[in-house]
C-alpha cells in the first residue's frame, strides 16, 4: 500500500531539530507584532487626546488665510489685510510665551480653556467688525486679541513627553507623528479656509475655524488622565528657557527655518501667478507639505542611533541641499517641474523639525516645557514674517524665479548656526 503524500505535523522534538526553524514564517493564526504607531496609540488615553488636539490644531492653518480673504474681499485692500494679520503675529510673539508659562505653572486645562475662549471672542469680534463696516482700527484690536490662542501642538507634545519619559524610542515616534500632524494641518487648513470663504460666504472660514478651535480645546482639556501635572510657581521661577545652554542657537536656527517657509510660500504664489496658474498655487504648496508629512511618518518608524545633536546639522544640510531643486526648477518656467521639486524639498523639513523639537525638549529647564516649545514656535513665526518680506521684495525687484534664492540663503544661515553651535557652546563653557 503506497504511503500517503499528506505530511503529518511534526512533534516538538522534530521542530527543535529543524535547522533555522526559528526563521520559519508565522503561522496563519499568529499576527505580526504591532508597528511603532500602533503601539503608541495603544496607550490609554493617547488616541482621545490626539483626536481632540487635531481638531484644535487645524484652525492654525485656517485663521490667517480666512482673515486675509475676508478683509480683502470686503474692504478691497490686501494691504489692510496683511497689516492686520502682521499685527496679530506680533502680538502672538509677545503673548504666546506668557500663556505657555502659565500652562506650565497651573496646568493645561486651567489656562488653555479661558485663553482659547478669549481668542475666540477676538475672532468673533473681527467677523462682526468686518461684517458691519467698523473702523479699521477695530480690526487690528480684534485680531490682536486672538494672540491668546494656546500652543496646542506644544501641549500635545508635552503630554507625550510626560507619558513616554522612560521610552526614548516611543518619544521619537510621537514627535515624528506630531510634526506630520503639523504639516497636515498647514496643508489642509488654507485649502479649507479658501473654499469656505469663496464658496459659502467671506466670514465662513473664520467662523468654522473658531468652532473647531473651541470644540477641540474643550475636548482636549477634558482628557485629564493624560495631562502633565502642573509644576506650580516655584518650578517656573528659575532661569528662563531662553537662557538655557544651547537654546539661543536653536532659536536662531528656528528663525532662519521660518524664513525658509515664509519666503517659499510668497515666492511660489508669485511664480504661479506669473505663469497664469494662480489657482494652482495652493496645490503646489500642498505638495511640499505632503512630502514633509510623509517623510515625518517614515522618520518616526526609524530606530535611530546617536544623539540628536549629531543628527541636527546633517538634517539642516539635507534641507539646504534639497532647496536648491525648486530654484533650479523655477528657472525652467514650468510649474509642473516646480511642484515636483517642492515635493522632494519638503521631505527634509519634517526630519529637521522633529530633531529640532527633540533638542528643545532636552534643553528646556524642567517644569517649563510648554514655554520652551512655544519660544521655538514664536521664532518660527518671526522667521516666516521676515522670509515673507524678503521673498516679496526679491520677487518685486527681480523675479519670482530669483526669489527662490531667498529660502536657499536662509537655509544656509541655519546650517552655519547649527554646525557652529556645539563649538561655540564648548568655547563659551571654557571661557566661563
Automatic annotation (TrEMBL):
The keyword Membrane applies. Gene3D superfamilies: MFS general substrate transporter like domains. The chain crosses the membrane at residues 46-72, 78-99, 111-134, 191-221, 249-272, 278-300, 312-329, 335-360, 372-392, 404-424. Keywords: Membrane, Transmembrane, Transmembrane helix. The keyword tRNA processing does not apply. Residues 1-35 are annotated as: Disordered. InterPro entries: MFS, MFS_trans_sf. PANTHER family: MAJOR FACILITATOR SUPERFAMILY (MFS) PROFILE DOMAIN-CONTAINING PROTEIN, PTHR23542. This is MFS transporter.
Amino acid at each position: 500500500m503506497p504511503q500517503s503524500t499528506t505530511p503529518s505535523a511534526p512533534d516538538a522534538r522534530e521542530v527543535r531539530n529543524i535547522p533555522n526553524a526559528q526563521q520559519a514564517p508565522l503561522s496563519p493564526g499568529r499576527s505580526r507584532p504591532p508597528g511603532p504607531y500602533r503601539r503608541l496609540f495603544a496607550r490609554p488615553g493617547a488616541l482621545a487626546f490626539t483626536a481632540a488636539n487635531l481638531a484644535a490644531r487645524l484652525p492654525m492653518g485656517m485663521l490667517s488665510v480666512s482673515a486675509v480673504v475676508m478683509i480683502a474681499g470686503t474692504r478691497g485692500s490686501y494691504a489692510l489685510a496683511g497689516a492686520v494679520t502682521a499685527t496679530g503675529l506680533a502680538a502672538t510673539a509677545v503673548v504666546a510665551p506668557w500663556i505657555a508659562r502659565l500652562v506650565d505653572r497651573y496646568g493645561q486645562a486651567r489656562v488653555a480653556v479661558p485663553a482659547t475662549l478669549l481668542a475666540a471672542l477676538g475672532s468673533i469680534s473681527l467677523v462682526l467688525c468686518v461684517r458691519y463696516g467698523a473702523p479699521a482700527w477695530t480690526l487690528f484690536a480684534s485680531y490682536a486679541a486672538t494672540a491668546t490662542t494656546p500652543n496646542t501642538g506644544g501641549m500635545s507634545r508635552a503630554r507625550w513627553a510626560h507619558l513616554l519619559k522612560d521610552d526614548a524610542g516611543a518619544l521619537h515616534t510621537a514627535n515624528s507623528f506630531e510634526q506630520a500632524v503639523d504639516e497636515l494641518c498647514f496643508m489642509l487648513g488654507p485649502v479649507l479656509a479658501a473654499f469656505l470663504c469663496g464658496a459659502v460666504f467671506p466670514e465662513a472660514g473664520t467662523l468654522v475655524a473658531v468652532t473647531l478651535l473651541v470644540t477641540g480645546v474643550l475636548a482636549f482639556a477634558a482628557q485629564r488622565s493624560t495631562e502633565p501635572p502642573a509644576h506650580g510657581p516655584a518650578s517656573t521661577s528659575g532661569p528662563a528657557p531662553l537662557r538655557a545652554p544651547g537654546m539661543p542657537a536653536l532659536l536662531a536656527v528656528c528663525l532662519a527655518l521660518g524664513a525658509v517657509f515664509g519666503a517659499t510660500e510668497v515666492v511660489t504664489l508669485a511664480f504661479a501667478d506669473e505663469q497664469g496658474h494662480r489657482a494652482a498655487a495652493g496645490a503646489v504648496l500642498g505638495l511640499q507639505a505632503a512630502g514633509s508629512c510623509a517623510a515625518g511618518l517614515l522618520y518616526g518608524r526609524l530606530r535611530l542611533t546617536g544623539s540628536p545633536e549629531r543628527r541636527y546639522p546633517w538634517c539642516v544640510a539635507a534641507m539646504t541641499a534639497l532647496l536648491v531643486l525648486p530654484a533650479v526648477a523655477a528657472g525652467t518656467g514650468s510649474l509642473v517641474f516646480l511642484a515636483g521639486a517642492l515635493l522632494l524639498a519638503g521631505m527634509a523639513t519634517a526630519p529637521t523639525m522633529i530633531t529640532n523639537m527633540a533638542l528643545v525638549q532636552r534643553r528646556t529647564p524642567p517644569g517649563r516645557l510648554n514655554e520652551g516649545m512655544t519660544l521655538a514656535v514664536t521664532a518660527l513665526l518671526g522667521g516666516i514674517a521676515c522670509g515673507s518680506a524678503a521673498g516679496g521684495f526679491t520677487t518685486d525687484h527681480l523675479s519670482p524665479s530669483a526669489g527662490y534664492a531667498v529660502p536657499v540663503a536662509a537655509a544656509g544661515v541655519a546650517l552655519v548656526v547649527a554646525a557652529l553651535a556645539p563649538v561655540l557652546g564648548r568655547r563659551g563653557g571654557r571661557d566661563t
